[in-house]
Design brief:
Chains: A mainly alpha (about 170), B alpha/beta (about 725), C alpha+beta (about 240)
CATH class of chain C: Alpha Beta
Shape of chain B: globular
Strand content of chain B: 15-25%
Radius of gyration of chain B: 28 Å
CATH architecture of chain C: 2-Layer Sandwich
Radius of gyration of chain C: 18 Å
Number of helices of chain C: 6
Order of helices and strands of chain C: EHHEEEEHEEHHEHEE
Largest sheet of chain C: 4 strands, mixed
Number of helices of chain B: 25
Oligomer: heterotrimer
Structural class of chain C: alpha+beta
Helix content of chain C: 10-25%
């Protein structure tokens, strides 16, 4: 009887661990994208983060570049590449590109890029060295604990605000 | 513990569940779609505000709309607009559920399965316009074309009338139930008789000390409710004191709840009360006596005791109120929509307006004045709403087979007209009916072709508010989002049609609605009165849209010029009702609901969820019965009662209502939709217009919607209403 | 324990709402504005009849007297943001607590739906989501991105439009100042046509809300319970003059 119970408990724990590990791996993995966009190529070409992701200084979201912005260069640059041709196809059909989200927060979390950029943070601090990625992927699981790891290093006057859940969970 | 579950099964289930729960937060694919071509004026995620005009009722309040990424998110009142000053009512706030309503038509459609089949075949617009052109050109004569309009923007009326004129057809007949319930046509006629012009007057509540309101639901749906609410707030906080506000009507309405006193007058006898008060003021030389001698002739046929008996208001009450009214520094008397709904409507309204004369408040602070149209006069070319009699005339023509082609815009006559007026039968005699409704309502479902207009948040336009404000003002309208569907502005449809026909193309040379508007409103540029001016017409057009209209920098009120109305005795006219008092002991009061107005709000779930202020009921309709009457009939709250008139019958649950005369029952208008979308159809309730006799006020031709008698009988069952309040056994909450 | 309204040494605002019952006309504009701003779910007729309606602000109507000497009075009621809130100590997971600006916070992702708070609330202003919200397309396009859309099993209530408070405070901060009196307006306050609702900082003695709170007409609901509400009512039937 005891043996059965021990095996049962071990099985449950193992299954739970497996489940957690599998899902973490899925979260850490790079999601498939409709166009094989490489940040590395573009950063090497000299494009700054804020050129494409233009909103974070003034809005809460970072935003993705519009198809028009991509075509601003790619109407002429690298038009022989197959991926650029896929891009051109979207432009011709006036279709938005269905990118898959790489970094996201649950719906009940309100994160403001603007506030963070305004305090002088740069993109790499949270998003990692995106400039060397050929495929965009998250570098860290951005859960609340991770946010707090940084925020708790701030002086007490600043962290006081964070003790109010409403600041991020309104 | 079931015996059937073995240990094996249990292990399987438990393990599976655990693994599954461990796997639960499987990474979801969230698609992010950027703009193809971003708008120039906004960043993604940032809000842009556009100014426009609300069209949920005829008032014409200015709104500003918060849009994010091309979606409209919130409506607010335009803080710059002189009419509503940044405020917006319940119906105005609900406008986004008109724009994003799931039951909107997405294309022009033909009802291919025949009228009433609800089988719609989508058409391409060129096809639809071809069809429209064909129908017009194959008419035997232009008189066989009829246009029935309801709530219609000013510019569209101008385009439609010009088109009809150039075709040789009669001008549009304008009738909608909301305007009938607020007595708009009658009020216009009253202005003609008193001030020599049909313009609706403005009652200066904000600066009044004593307000006598006769059946005017100032804070609900009557005329300009937001502006009236704003003024009331000012009145209550005024430095000269909170004022005295008295409401005369047979039912204690939401407006009466804010009054200092409610006088339960016999239905239709409000004018008699006003006559008595006027007579007392003059006889007893109350207040500012200067002009009393001049006005005495108006009251020569008035006997105060008779008026008191006829209205069932004690003489002491009449006298007390007369004293307060006459002695006030600033008093005003307001003739409301309920008066116009009686067969003696005009006579009552004359008596009420005359009180303003008696206390010398015409054109004075805190009294009644006319709006000065200023340079907006040329824009306001729409006549006041037509009266019911003229609609009956149209119905007669339809019934006689004299109408081959009927256009319907902004009205739902099958629902809004009393069933007894025969519109639903008459429309079957019209070979081809074209509706411009964005929704499949009861009238559209009886038409052959529907050419859906954009909804107001997707539309261009302007409106000169009527009644106006304390200065010349015209409200502008612009699309705040790109039209969601393949609908088309009716003004553009008519202009497109005109372009194809010889005569009309001369009369209407504009390529589209926006061109027409730009040209028309540019007249306002350069006026010395304006709050802004521009150096170029395109600059003006930009400012016009950004401000949300054009208005005068300063207050400009106009003192009305009086006609010779005071040189004649005022008519003393008793109310008359349909049905004899023995068989039908109660008088029916169908009142417009704050949320649904005349029923047009029924397809918006926010409005259906809005509790009625007095009964707190959501989603339904009910019959309000005086407590004594209810007891006598053996009725309690939620008992279903059968209400029957000579023309129709309906059943509805009872709300025992302390604030209503024992001989009156009230039913809110707006429910009982059989079409018009899922939310309108989901709500319980019947349309009280089914009970109405198609009577008119002989003087105005207006629908006498308050003149029908009914009888009640318990139906023998209960229906629980969705009330906010709980019924504590006594039937009402108390503050104790 | 009464909190002193005039402690100007406080560095945090205490947000309060003043409801002038002499001005409220029962028009229900506040009710619809709140639904529009806060992504409230649609509750249809039968569920509403069961009492499961979802309103964060309601206008209560009281009858006084008997026909013909009958009066009706309106009283808008929303979460009173009590200084000594009975709902806060009873939550087993601390999903509701008092923040430094005087608001009673409700954190949706922490709530597990025991409904103890709704039972404890003497004003009965807490609403429970009995069902997942359904917004038939394209009604969902209207949803406010600044406010969480709550699933079933979660309690919600008036937040004094915290999203507007936060947004205005952040914007003011980027301009290097504090919000001025009247700059923050919850949806109901902004739309109220007779101007019956006023929102402001009770800790600022010059704010309009503070001034109105000092009126001889002011009262709070159920004061004997000691909840120290953040909503101050002004009695109807008299003015300040």
């Amino acid at each position: 009887m005891n043996r059965w119970i021990t095996i049962l408990i071990l099985l449950i724990v193992a299954a739970a661990l497996a489940g957690i590990l599998i899902t973490r791996m899925q979260v850490w993995a790079a999601p498939p994208q409709p166009i094989a966009f490489s940040h590395l190529t573009h950063v090497q070409a000299g494009v700054q983060c804020l050129f494409c992701h233009s909103s974070p200084l003034r809005a809460d979201i970072a935003s993705l570049p519009s198809v028009q912005k991509c075509m601003g260069c790619h109407a002429m640059v690298a038009t022989d590449k197959p991926e650029v041709q896929v891009l051109a196809g979207y432009w011709e059909r006036k279709e938005p590109i269905p990118w898959n989200r790489v970094n996201y927060q649950p719906e009940f979390v309100y994160f403001s890029h603007r506030a963070h950029l305004a305090s002088g943070l740069n993109c790499e601090i949270c998003h990692g060295d995106v400039g060397s990625m050929t495929v965009a992927q998250p570098v860290v699981k951005m859960d609340m604990g991770w946010c707090l790891d940084c925020h708790l290093k701030q002086p007490p006057e600043k962290t006081a605000r964070l003790s109010d859940c409403l600041t991020c969970h309104k | 513990m079931t015996k059937k579950l073995t240990r094996r099964d249990f292990l399987k289930i438990a393990t599976g569940a655990t693994v599954a729960s461990g796997l639960a937060p499987v990474a979801r694919r969230i698609a992010l779609e950027p703009f193809v071509q971003p708008p120039e004026e906004a960043l993604p995620g940032q809000a842009t505000w556009f100014a426009s005009t609300c069209r949920q009722c005829p008032a014409g309040c200015g709104i500003v709309v918060r849009t994010i990424n091309g979606r409209a998110k919130k409506l607010e009142g335009n803080p710059l607009h002189p009419l509503n000053r940044g405020k917006l009512c319940a119906r105005g706030q609900s406008g986004l559920q008109v724009l994003y309503n799931p039951d909107r038509l997405k294309n022009a459609v033909r009802q291919s399965g025949g009228r009433g089949s609800r089988q719609f075949e989508p058409l391409y617009w060129p096809q639809a316009l071809d069809l429209l052109e064909e129908k017009i050109t194959t008419l035997a004569s232009p008189e066989r074309l009829a246009f029935l309009g309801g709530l219609m923007p000013d510019h569209l009326y101008q385009i439609a009338s010009r088109l009809l004129e150039s075709l040789g057809a009669s001008p549009p007949v304008i009738f909608d139930l909301h305007s009938a319930l607020e007595g708009r046509a009658a009020a216009s006629r009253l202005s003609e008789l008193f001030f020599g012009e049909p313009q609706l007057p403005v009652y200066d509540l904000a600066r009044a000390d004593v307000v006598l309101s006769f059946g005017a639901n100032l804070f609900e749906t009557w005329m300009s409710p937001v502006a009236q609410n704003v003024a009331f707030g000012d009145m209550r906080s005024s430095a000269s004191g909170r004022g005295l506000f008295v409401q005369f009507e047979p039912r204690l309405s939401t407006t009466a709840a804010s009054a200092d006193e409610w006088v339960p007058v016999r239905p239709g006898a409000e004018g008699l009360v006003a006559l008595a008060i006027g007579r007392i003021i003059i006889e007893e030389r109350l207040g500012h006596v200067g002009s009393h001698r001049d006005h005495a002739v108006m009251y020569q046929d008035v006997d105060v005791r008779e008026m008191s008996a006829a209205s069932q208001v004690p003489v002491e009450t009449l006298r007390r109120l007369a004293v307060a009214f006459a002695n006030a520094d600033h008093a005003v008397s307001i003739p409301g929509g309920y008066l116009a709904g009686q067969r003696n409507g005009l006579a009552s309204m004359l008596a009420v307006q005359a009180l303003n004369l008696v206390v010398a408040q015409v054109g004075r602070v805190g009294g009644v004045f006319l709006s000065d149209p200023g340079p907006t006069a040329s824009l306001q070319n729409k006549p006041a709403v037509h009266n019911f009699e003229e609609v009956l005339g149209l119905i007669e023509r339809m019934q006689a087979g004299e109408v081959d082609l009927l256009f319907v815009y902004g009205a739902n006559p099958v629902f809004e007209l009393p069933a007894a007026s025969g519109f639903a039968e008459a429309i079957t005699r019209v070979p081809y009916v074209i509706s411009f409704s964005p929704f499949v309502d009861e009238t559209a479902v009886r038409s052959d072709l529907i050419l859906p207009d954009h909804v107001y948040l997707e539309s261009w336009g302007y409106q000169v508010p009527s009644p106006g404000a304390d200065r010349p003002v015209v409200s502008s309208q612009q699309p705040v989002v790109r039209p969601l569907y393949d609908t088309r502005s009716t003004a553009d449809v008519l202009l497109g049609l005109a372009a194809r026909l010889e005569g009309p193309s001369q009369a209407l040379p504009w390529a589209d609605e926006a061109a027409y508007l730009e040209e028309t409103v540019s007249e306002l540029n350069g006026s010395s009165l304006g709050a802004y001016n521009a150096r170029t017409p395109s600059g003006f057009w930009a400012l016009w849209r950004q401000y949300g209209g054009w208005w005068s920098e300063k207050e400009i009120r106009r003192e009305p010029e009086l006609t010779d109305i005071r040189s004649k005795p005022l008519p003393v006219s008793e109310p008359r009702f349909d049905g004899d008092p023995q068989s039908y002991p109660f008088i029916l009061y169908p009142y417009p609901s704050v949320a649904l107005s005349d029923g047009r709000g029924a397809n918006q779930p926010w409005l259906q969820e809005t509790p009625d202020p007095m009964s707190t009921v959501q989603w339904g309709a009910w019959v309000e019965v005086n407590p004594e009457t209810a007891q006598a009939l053996g009725l309690n709250d939620n008992d279903v009662v059968r209400v029957e008139s000579q023309h129709g019958v309906l059943e509805a649950p009872v709300v025992v209502y302390p604030g209503i005369r024992p001989d009156v029952v009230a039913i809110p208008v707006g429910q009982g939709h059989l079409d018009y979308g899922r939310f309108a159809q989901a709500a319980s309730g019947s349309n009280p217009l089914a009970l109405l006799a198609p009577l008119t006020d002989a003087d105005t031709g207006g629908l006498a919607w308050g003149a029908t008698r009914v009888r009640l009988a318990p139906a023998g069952r209960k229906q629980v209403l969705a009330r906010l309040e709980s019924l504590d056994g006594e039937g009402r909450e108390s503050l104790d | 324990m009464e909190k002193d309204a005039n402690r100007s040494t406080e560095t945090h605002p205490r947000w309060v709402m003043v409801v002038d019952l002499d001005r409220c006309t029962g028009c229900q504009a506040c009710v619809v504005a709140c639904h529009a701003e806060n992504n409230l779910q649609i509750v249809e007729e039968q569920e509403s009849a069961y009492g499961r309606w979802a309103h964060w602000i309601i206008v209560q109507r009281y009858w006084e007297g008997e026909y013909p000497n009958v009066k009706a009075r309106f009283m808008p009621v929303m979460c009173q943001q009590c200084g000594e809130a009975p709902c806060e100590p009873v939550c087993p997971v601390f999903a509701t607590y008092h923040n430094q600006e005087g608001l009673n916070a409700q954190i949706y992702n922490r709530c597990i739906g025991t409904r103890f708070c709704a039972s404890a609330c003497p004003y009965k202003v807490r609403v429970y989501n009995w069902f997942d919200p359904v917004f038939p397309e394209p009604l969902s396009e209207q949803l406010n991105p600044d406010v969480t859309v709550r699933t079933r099993g979660i309690i919600e209530k008036c937040t004094f439009c915290i999203q507007r408070i936060l947004r205005t405070e952040i914007e003011a901060k980027t301009e290097g100042r504090k919000p001025v009196d009247g700059e923050i307006q919850p949806a109901c306050v902004q739309t109220c046509p007779p101007g019956a609702l006023v929102f402001g900082d009770l800790n600022d003695p010059d704010s309009q809300a503070s001034q109105l709170a000092r009126s001889h007409r002011s009262f709070r609901l159920l004061p004997e319970l000691g909840t120290d509400p953040g909503v101050i009512y002004l009695k109807g039937g008299e003015t300040n003059v």
